[in-house]
Design brief:
Oligomer: homodimer
Radius of gyration of chain A: 24 Å
Number of strands of chain A: 14
CATH architecture of the largest domain in chain A: Orthogonal Bundle
Largest sheet of chain A: 8 strands, mixed
Largest interface: A-B, 94 and 94 residues
Number of helices of chain A: 18
Helix content of chain A: 40-55%
Shape of chain A: globular
Chain lengths: ~600, ~600
């Protein structure tokens, strides 16, 4: 089992140098928020993460959760963790002040959320989903719903869930069958939802379930889905939430990972029907889901970084302590002396730094989308969201696998702990939309729908960083050469898609995942190139922690050498198009 | 849970078209062995695999093994499987006829072993390790040892184990501490061994442990290690094996996968010392281990193919049956219609076919190394062994991960079965020498030690296939272009290593894994290119199963488009050398 320490130096470097947090806060009129305050917040969160959340990460894995007579019993100890989490005010960090929130920028919330997900991924899913519920209600709920639910969700007094999936409706929500029948001021909901994360627990007195269902007059397909709030407990005559609503977890899934997070089959309306309240207008449920999808998807991408960081922190001390080489005099040395072990560690470290940079830069775009040049920033949010979700979670698979590999045989032993991160990470490319779904979003709504304008804008900005690297001469030659090749691959991939998608209906789907990964690696290379420029500038000015900044130059270079060249292989696969992919009849597979 | 059916058409295609089995058998003087007989053997093995081994694969995973009062209790049902396996004569397939073996070529044994590993990886480890024990004794044991042990191991009456690893001696066997003290005609062994696969069970009346230990006068390091046989039971006065030797499993590991395979901590000589018999000469244990290492390493590489094949067979029916898309009229279609799902399936299928081709071609080289032009074939065995072990097992990680991904959320649910293959596969890049160890072997003993001669010979043969593809014109243009680039990458990587390794002691270790993977992808591309040529020739001649042969042309093309280009990215990483890998101080990680 590993300890967890928040890598605050790297987070602060990204916030200060890439995000330019002070400027972001000033532009947003948050005069009392600045880098110093954020560092203090991160330090406090880091402490809670290390001391309270992280020690129960393995407990969640080994003890898991169970379904008892009065519902789901979370892992022993989690309720106490939740209490401390709530008392620290963490659920309210980025929520609107009108509902008791602290109104901090999303990018600060994201930097803090990295800590929760690293410390205890299974636990952190609970507040993450609550945040999604808060957003849905805040954006689309009536004033009455807002008044009833938001203060309690924002304070963490209650938690929230998202109920989308049904046995026959996963990626394809058109098939949702759960019904909602109007009855006075509310609706009666009946149906079954599956894969509901934290669908039940005993940590809070109530749970607000957000549920997709169909009204009796609903049109066919995704345009006939409405959004409802279904609380676990309804108010009694005194307004206390003591009356059990007709909704319950009827079974728990036995999963590969995140054992501490209950994944529920939820049954609505087994008896008289579950009381629910319509959020916003009828038939707009899917659109409302999309409102918060950018946030939820970026949050899952962030989990990719978080679990990869945890895997790195598990592997690094092992590599430093494990004696395995023998010197000629019989003395031993640790495996971190072996170049191949260093290569694996650097692959993890460089990947993590690229992921952190992209996750925070993308999060900051959602803040900037509320200020000057809003449309451009919102466009960037739209573009980066599937890349953050898709690429970070795919990269997390590789990093957590390397975490096992560095341990050798010990990595395969569950008690070591490396395997948990590997197992936990495996869900990330699946939930909140698979990599394939993210990739279709990227090539379709985010690229073809705007003739590649959003990508062109990103490519242009990357080109500016390339010019700065080129201007730096020999010092940045490795990064500049690799980024130039990758940028050209990105341009060519964009052109190829735009030129060919219309005449070949299978093309976009055939190349989509490679397309997403290409832009992921390119974006990472862009931001680590930019990081090298900033690190060198700080070194030249004699500012900052020189050993940290010099290491940043090394990881930037390693990334350019080892990860950026993958864009060439991805481009080749993209340009192969759909022919061989569509060639086989089903019985030839 | 998935059924398993041996993909006999592909195995036979590889055996007939790439291995040229009939010629191999004729050259070896095995006049009664031919393709027809081998097909019959494969059909019989496939039946046992599907009907007997495969149904217990999931049982092994869920029930696992336990340590009882009289030792390790294997998964319920495994003893019966073993009995049928033994009664079928499968343990003796490739063993020498002098000891009751059937004397079939190694490549036939390998084709059959693919079935056992696919059907039940955890179970199949037991006969796999027994085969290793047989080889050690057959090559290095005295006539007395051979006479006592081989007939019983070959018949499957007993099983064998390999006891190498100790807590402080994993990849670095120089640190082995287990002691052997001479006493009359035998030795008394004391020490602890870890990670001993199938170190104990109740399926057979005896187990022969092969153990590395040090004699009292042993020189320091790997040159002071000797090899011993330590039977679980010693003979009583009537020659029946009823006297318990002082060796026991003292605990079992709790592992990420292969739960049906007991991984034992073995204690030797807790009381009076375990009776052991020296195999061959003193201090030559490590050399003896190397004798069978080629076989054992190729066998683990084969497991990579096997578990990947099983993962494919798990994912394919799901993709055909899972309805998730909705047509405009409301009817549903299965996810195999989606190009991205087809891409994932083809990635699995093409990878598997490349792995099968390389595994069987490498296995055939070990047969040919006993005939004409033996030195060249033995050189090829030496060269291909680390590639087969390293590349196939790394590729298996990707294929089993895709197997989960195709299932979406269901892939993360343990009952689905896809997760087991993913967990089981994770050990393969670790045991029998990690990928890093294989890669060091490839760049060191197999390349630098012979100035790249072995690689040059392989590259030349690949060049011949390239010429044939080029001569085929437009029909093979995709394969030819991709193979040309990959071949050039291979040549450049070889030159770069030879030119730079001497002046930079960190270089070989820094680039080794990328070097191994590059030659893995290149070898796969070579053999699938060759497969395309043979498939087309058969089609032109009107022979064979046209739908199968046309599918082979498609997977060959897909591989050239999607997997071969990775060689470019790997070459770039290789040419980056060691600078950034060696740049950081340990505290900068």
């Amino acid at each position: 089992m590993s300890d967890y320490i928040h890598p605050y130096r790297d987070a602060e470097f990204v916030l200060n140098e890439l995000v330019e947090l002070d400027r972001l806060c000033a532009d947003a009129g948050l005069s009392d928020v600045n880098g110093e305050l954020v560092s203090a917040i991160l330090a406090e969160a880091g402490k809670l993460g290390s001391e309270v959340l992280a020690p129960l990460n393995r407990t969640g894995d080994t003890l898991g959760v169970r379904l008892g007579e009065s519902g789901v019993e979370e892992t022993p100890g989690f309720a106490d963790v939740y209490r401390q989490f709530q008392e620290g005010g963490w659920p309210s960090l980025t929520a609107a002040e009108a509902f008791g929130g602290q109104g901090l920028p999303n990018v600060v919330g994201t930097a803090v959320n990295e800590i929760w997900h690293s410390a205890n991924l299974a636990f952190a899913l609970c507040p993450m989903l609550t945040q999604g519920a808060i957003e849905s209600i805040a954006h689309h709920g009536s004033d009455m719903l807002k008044g009833s639910y938001l203060p309690r969700l924002v304070s963490g007094e209650w938690t929230g869930t998202m109920n989308l999936t049904e046995p026959d409706a996963g990626s394809d929500l058109a098939a949702v069958k759960t019904k909602a029948v109007p009855q006075g001021d509310h609706y009666l909901i009946t149906g079954q939802k599956i894969f509901i994360t934290w669908g039940d627990h005993q940590m809070t007195e109530n749970i607000a379930h957000l549920v997709l269902a169909r009204l009796p007059d609903a049109p066919f397909g995704v345009k006939g889905i409405s959004l409802f709030i279904v609380p676990k407990f309804l108010p009694d005559r005194e307004g206390r939430f003591t009356v059990r609503n007709d909704v319950a977890c009827v079974s728990l899934e036995h999963k590969l990972g995140i054992h501490g997070s209950p994944t529920c089959v939820m049954s609505f309306g087994d008896k008289e029907g579950a009381v629910g309240y319509l959020v916003g207008e009828p038939h707009k449920g899917l659109a409302y889901m999309f409102t918060m999808m950018n946030h939820a998807r970026q949050a899952v991408g962030l989990q990719g970084l978080s679990v990869a960081e945890r895997a790195y922190q598990q592997a690094l001390p092992y590599a430093k302590e494990r004696l395995q080489g023998t010197n000629k005099d019989g003395s031993r040395f640790s495996i971190i002396k072996f170049p191949d072990v260093r290569r694996m560690l650097l692959q993890m470290k460089a990947s993590n730094e690229a992921m952190r940079a992209l996750a925070l830069v993308a999060a900051a775009e959602t803040d900037r989308a509320h200020g000057a040049d809003a449309a451009r920033h919102q466009g960037r949010v739209e573009l980066l969201t599937p890349i953050v979700k898709g690429w970070l979670t795919e990269l997390a698979q590789e990093v957590t696998a390397l975490g096992i590999q560095i341990h050798g045989g010990m990595g395969f032993i569950e008690e070591t702990g490396a395997a948990q991160h590997y197992r936990d990470a495996r869900i990330l490319t699946i939930y909140e939309g698979t990599t394939g779904i993210q990739a279709l979003d990227l090539v379709g709504r985010k690229t073809l729908a705007n003739q590649g304008a959003l990508l062109a804008d990103l490519l242009e900005e990357i080109g500016e960083t390339l010019q700065q690297l080129e201007a730096g001469g020999e010092r940045f030659a490795v990064q500049a050469n690799a980024l130039r090749n990758a940028l050209e691959a990105g341009r060519e991939a964009r052109r190829f898609l735009l030129d060919n998608a219309a005449r070949d209906p299978s093309l976009a789907g055939s190349v989509s995942v490679d397309f997403l990964l290409l832009f992921g690696y390119l974006s990472g290379g862009w931001l680590l190139g930019k990081s090298a420029l900033r690190a060198q500038a700080l070194l030249n000015a004699g500012g900052g922690d020189a050993r940290f900044l010099n290491a940043k130059l090394v990881t930037s270079r390693f990334y350019a050498e080892h990860l950026l060249p993958r864009t060439g292989a991805l481009l080749a696969a993209i340009k192969a198009g759909s022919a061989s992919i569509m060639a086989l009849d089903e019985d030839q597979f």
